[in-house]
Write a structure and sequence with these properties.
heterodimer, A: 113 residues, mainly beta, four-stranded antiparallel sheet, globular, B: 112 residues, six-stranded mixed sheet, five-stranded antiparallel sheet
Chain lengths: 113, 112
């Protein structure tokens, strides 16, 4: 009965590789998000989708590409991984327009070597 | 200067103490104020949110917003070791503003 799930939980890879992180929510929410949390715990929005439509694209390198096949899924693909991409990536979801009630997934710890 | 400032801690208190966690902010357009709890190696979990100024209570937790001072607080009464976590404040503007701005979190340790 997990609300927001992410796979994988851990990802260790070499610089230059391409990787994907998957996110699924079973809450019936219309809005999904990707956040990046750095080593100092600072949580920053990367992308936001409403019903498969991109509505927020913060200043994120083009190497990051989100894809939403349906409103319950939001995946994140990262090309040409760099050392600075090492972080914890969180997926979240909320009812449409209700950002104040976001539910987060468990996170994906990405380490780029 | 960051839009939302939060003392990173760690804040260590004995079990049973009243804990006060705080955030200050600079953007007067913020209208919604959230508190999240994040255990080590877990995702943030929404504790409470309030709209505009005032207090809101939920069990041992009380959230307080003072918009005139641009200052919000989370009080935890009768703190327990299970409250040990990082507490993140988050804010957003009114009118369906489409992103949250987070503080960097305060690490709390409640000791036996």
């Amino acid at each position: 009965d997990t609300a927001v799930s992410q796979t994988p939980k851990y990802l260790v890879t070499q610089m230059g590789n391409d990787k994907s992180i998957k996110c699924e929510q079973n809450l019936g929410h219309d809005t999904m998000y990707w956040y990046k949390q750095d080593s100092k715990k600072f949580l920053k929005i990367m992308f936001s989708y409403n019903n498969k439509e991109l509505i927020i694209n913060e200043t994120v390198p083009n190497r990051f590409s989100p894809k939403s096949p349906d409103k319950a899924h939001l995946n994140l693909h990262i090309n040409s991984l760099e050392l600075g991409d090492s972080a914890v990536y969180f997926c979240a979801s909320s009812p449409l327009g209700a950002l104040e009630t976001q539910y987060f997934g468990p996170g994906t710890r990405l380490l780029v070597l | 200067q960051k839009e939302v400032e939060q003392d990173p801690g760690p804040l260590s208190v004995p079990e049973g103490a009243i804990v006060s966690l705080n955030c200050t902010y600079s953007n007067s357009a913020f209208q919604y104020f959230m508190w999240y709890r994040q255990y080590s190696r877990k995702g943030p979990e929404l504790l409470m949110y309030t709209y505009s100024s005032g207090n809101k209570e939920d069990g041992r937790f009380t959230a307080q917003v003072d918009k005139s001072s641009k200052y919000i607080s989370l009080f935890i009464r009768d703190s327990q070791p299970s409250d040990s976590a990082t507490y993140l404040c988050a804010m957003k503007g009114a009118g369906g503003g489409n992103k949250l701005t987070f503080g960097t979190g305060t690490q709390l340790k409640v000791e036996l």
